[in-house]
Fold Alpha/beta fold hydrolase.
Amino acid sequence: MIRSVRRALAALAILLTGALALSGCLYSQIPPRAEGGVSTPRPVDGIDEELVPFYGQQVQWSDNGAGMLTATVKAPLDWNDPAKGELELAVVRQPATGGASQGSLLTNPGGPGGSGYDFIEQSVDFAVSETLQEKYDIVGFDPRGVGRSTAVTCLDADAMMQYLYALPSHPRGTAEWEAEGAADNKRFADACEANSGGILPYITTDQAARDLDLLRAVLGDEKLTYLGYSYGTFLGATYAKLYPENVGRLVLDGAIDPSVSGTDVGVTQGVGFEAALRTYMQACLDGAADQGGGCPFSGTVDQAMGDLSALLASVDRSPLPSPDGRQLGADTLLTGIIAALYAPENWVYLTDAFTLALQGDPSTAFMLADFYNGVEDGQFSDNSAEAFNAYNCMDYPVDESQEAQDAATARLQAEAPTIAPYWDGPGICEVWPHEPTGVREKIAAEGADPIVVIGTTGDPATPYEWAVSLADQLSSGVLMTFEGEGHTAYNGQSACVDNAVDAYFIDGTVPEDGLTCQP
């Protein structure tokens, strides 16, 4: 993949659950569902014969001991050729807490590569409001390639730590630096191919959206009710493109524009994080982004950003040692910065990271980078980094001209001067073992029920302009705007947003197109 996409696409991988850690019946036709045991799938009339064994399967539920039910659903390895084999999808369901259920509300926390299973099992209150929990069975699942489902597997923990944190042996930007990064990427990609059991060609959003329709059916729902965050908006929009007639009530929060190229994604995110960093810096200088210890920068925002650039350049030249043997270079420091910028509540950690780094202590910066990379006590808590690469390398075609790439680089340098020197580099997708099958195109989903798209004006990871574009593309798109900072808006950021979303899911009340909400 083009070089500028490497870090930019990585920005989509932060999970909403991680951000929290740091800081009249709609479905009258649904068959009765048991609180355990077996769920009855919907009739398979009209389904291709070769798909009947999948759509007609009965889901065997087990109690997880904490009030939720878990199951495994079988899906075709390749929806275009179901005879090739099958894989497994891990599912968790919290039955409606109010008793009678309106049906299943499926969720996706983002990524690609985020565990929807953990999202619900470990943080259901963060995922959806108590009001929705009363009315719906809340369902989380690990998409194909992720977590407890048939998963992408690449490097062992030690090799993965080396891949993510090792310092380059050559000066940034040199031919030797490029070659070293390309070789590291090749080893990673080759390991993914060798250790993933042949699933890599089928780890795509198109295939995952077909899995989503399978889950809808085997759960017994006539139409899909779905809440997708961040990357989950792309999954939901792709579903609407493939199955517009099966779209029920969809809410897409923190939208991705499906028509934007990989190069444009990279640049737009870089610019978005630079803008968020400037907003943080103003709060830091104003004394609103620390725990009483003061801001380590001074002067104007421009002067403070200049001092931050000097800090990044300093650790790039002379990395800061950590007691665990790792060294903090500019790439890892920038990863920690990105992690903290996802939510204003986490800005205090960023202030602490900067304060300590300026004193030669990388501990908080490593804490933030480890959170981003899913590292806990030196081990990886999930395979999100591996699945994330697998999806993006198959979803994003590499067809931009050199002229387009040069223009993108020029824009990034002009509009994100602090981030730009560390945003570029050899891309993993340039050496991925399979050619991408995804397309970047507008999605209209003609015939779908209203689809609510939420954009946050200060969102660094999925910039507001993408939500505007997606809502405009969708034939039934309804745009909601949250005037605030951080990534995504629903469930806790604004009563206005929460009430509108809950009313749509529960009563079918479509928000006014163009509704604008404040914190």
About this structure: The longest strand covers residues 86-94. The chain is about 40% helix and 15% strand.
